[in-house]
Amino acid sequence: MYAGHFAAGLAIKARVPQAPTAALLVGVTLLDLLFAPFVLLGIERIHETPGQPPGFSLDYIDWSHSLLMSLVWAAVFSAFFLKRGHVVVLTIAFAVFSHFLLDLLMHPGDLALWPGSATHLGFGIWLWQPSGWWWFELGFIALCSAYYLVRARRLQSFGGRGLWVCAVVVALHVVNSPWLSPAD
Q1: CA dist 67 to 62, 100, 130, 173, Å?
Q2: What does DSSP say about strands 45-48 and 56-60: parallel, antiparallel, or unpaired?
Q3: What average pLDDT does the structure give for the chain?
Q4: What is the C-alpha separation between 132 and 78, in angstroms, rounded?
């Protein structure tokens, strides 16, 4: 779920307009932003699985994506916004943690409770069928985008380019479709 995380960030922005948009969008993707250098440094491990959704296996992602570390990263990142008040801090912390919650739906049992935990979680929507995950995420993006646009229109305090923002999120999702992926 890539574009879905951004859609969640927009929905969170719609709920708490005073939270900085950039912080929310970084927050919802923070675990993946940590994951990339962790893989490059050998702290976490993946391998490719051509022809099998999602195209890779997340062998060990406990330092960026475990339940405990998701909460730790949420606390660390949101602490940078303490001067903005507790509502903004809690909102940004939730944005970071929302990544774990959404991944819990999509991932096939590779989300540890803590680094090194024997127990792993995940409902595995990625594995239901080769394209089923894409449609599920598209529905989620549509719901979040609709909420963002309705709130932006009602509050008239953010989202001046709401349709464009939502179109970019949908475009990101389309680019990530199984039908546009390079052939194996």
Answers
A1: 8, 7, 27, 25
A2: antiparallel
A3: 92
A4: 34
3-state helix, strand, coil in the chain (%, to 5): 65, 5, 30
18 DSSP 8-state letter: T
Give the pair of three-digit tokens for residue 11: 């929905």
d(CA 147, CA 94) in angstroms, rounded, equals 17
Per-residue confidence (pLDDT) for residue 60, from 0 to 100: 96
Tell whether 181 is covered by a domain.
Answer: no
- For 41-64, what is the mean pLDDT? 87
pLDDT tens-place string over residues 79-88: 999 999 999 9
- The 3-state DSSP class for residue 7 equals helix
| 156 found inside a domain | yes
Report the domain count for the chain: 1
